[in-house]
Amino acid sequence: MIKIISTVLLLGTMIPIHAQSAGNVGINTSNPEKELTVNGTMKTSGMTLKDPIEKLGPDENYSFLIKSPAPDNKITSYNDSFVPTSPAPINLIQFKITCNDDDKDWIDEYDTKINSNKFLVVIASHGFTQPVYTVTAPWITPMPDIFAYSSNGTWKLRADYVGFSTDDALPKGVWTLNLLVFDRAYAKEFNSVQTVNTTGTGAAPAPLIQ
Question: For a pLDDT cut of 90, what percent of the chain falls above it?
């Protein structure tokens, strides 16, 4: 018992601990704002959050708590104000891609260099600067063929009006592709092949998410 008390007293002399009359305790701070305020890093084997959780005020900024994979299991705080170049759980990236002289409306394999093992990419919206047409059936409405796909560890982009083209007199077309990029640690990707009946209708045998 003497050894334990001596250890506690020794730690108390090394770490500044301040107690206020209101009952708040602060470590490395003389003005604790809550029951326990730690000005520095903290290591714990577990954490429990009790309801109700205090809401942020209208002028207060937010932070994400992010846990690294095992065996490190470190928890760090993410806030865009102090890591502006780091990815968030959900990111919006816009690409403006100019087509070449031969294929004025076609992007076959544009490499975004985004790691497909770490991120999931979804094309949220798109735009194209030039009108397109077909000489065989001018009444047909052109439909764009646009998607993102993973190849060799990165996300590639494809965009094309299949069977259509721009007028030769027009300049090269420019695609605007708005991507939603999700961190795979916070998203799931389901690839389930479904078969429908001859009438074109059907139903999944079981819900993929419930």
Answer: 22
134-162 in b/e form (b: 16+ CB < 10 A) is eeeeeeeebebebebebeeeebbbbbbbe
Phi, psi of 64 (to 5 degrees): -100, 140
Q: What pairing do the DSSP bridges indicate for beta strands 174-183 and 119-128?
A: antiparallel
Q: CA-based angle 61:67:71, to the nearest 5? A: 160
**N-terminal to C-terminal alpha carbon distance within the chain:** 54
pLDDT at 8: 36
User: Given CA atoms 107, 112, 116, 122 in this order, what sign does their dihedral have?
Assistant: negative
Instruction: Pick left, alpha or beta for residue 101 (phi over 0 → left; psi -120 to 50 → alpha; otherwise beta).
Output: alpha
The greatest distance separating any two alpha carbons of the chain, rounded to the nearest whole angstrom, comes to 96
SS3 13: helix
DSSP string, 70-83: TTT--EEEE-TTT-
pLDDT by residue (tens digit) across 9-48? 344 445 566 666 578 888 888 888 888 888 887 777 777 7
Helices (H) and strands (E) in the chain, counts: 1, 11
* Higher pLDDT among residues 100 and 177, named by residue: 177
Collect all residues with Cβ–Cβ distance below 8 Å to 207 and sequence separation of at least 6: none
